[in-house]
């Protein structure tokens, strides 16, 4: 059973590092408990659209969660438990 979860973790890590915006977003989340797309975009010198796309991709994989889904702007995001596990793996190997 552990082997399967290790494989899925490895697949998620590979998926994150395969696209630069995902890796940049995950790295930035290390320093935040709660983050907004505009704040991350400002910190990383990327467009808000680029970061928003990465947020959506990570949310689709259950790595981050939107705390304010009812809002259309200024949404706030946090890492999920799964996201924290992936970030730990990234931190150990790639960041």
How would you explain this protein's 3D organization?
- Helix content is 63%, strand content 6%.
- By secondary structure, the chain is mostly helical.
- The protein has a single domain, classed as Winged helix-like DNA-binding domain superfamily/Winged helix DNA-binding domain (Arc Repressor Mutant, subunit A, Orthogonal Bundle).
- The protein is globular.
- The model has no long low-confidence stretch (mean pLDDT 91).
Helix and strand topology:
Layout: H1 2-17, H2 20-29, H3 37-44, H4 48-60, E1 64-66, E2 77-79, H5 81-93
Antiparallel strand pairs: 1-2
Helix pairs in contact: 1-5, 3-4
Structure keywords:
globular, two-stranded antiparallel sheet, mainly alpha, Arc Repressor Mutant, subunit A, 95 residues
Give a brief outline of the structure.
The chain has helices spanning 2-17, 20-29, 37-44, 48-60, 81-93; strands at 64-66, 77-79.
**Shape from CA axes?**
globular
CATH class category: Mainly Alpha
Spans of at least 5 consecutive residues whose pLDDT stays below 50 are none
Number of strands: 2
CATH topology: Arc Repressor Mutant, subunit A
Q: Let me know the largest β-sheet.
A: 2 strands, antiparallel
Rounded to an integer in angstroms, the radius of gyration calculated over CA atoms is 13 Å
DSSP summary: helix tally: 5
């Amino acid at each position: 059973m552990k082997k399967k979860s290790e494989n899925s973790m490895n697949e998620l890590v590979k998926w994150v590092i395969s696209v630069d915006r995902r890796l940049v977003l995950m790295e930035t989340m290390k320093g935040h408990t709660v983050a907004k797309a505009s704040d991350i975009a400002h910190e990383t010198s990327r467009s808000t659209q680029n970061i928003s796309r990465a947020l959506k991709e990570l949310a689709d994989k259950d790595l981050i969660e939107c705390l304010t889904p009812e809002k259309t702007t200024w949404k706030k995001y946090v890492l999920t438990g799964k996201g924290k596990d992936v970030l730990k793996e990234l931190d150990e190997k790639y960041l």
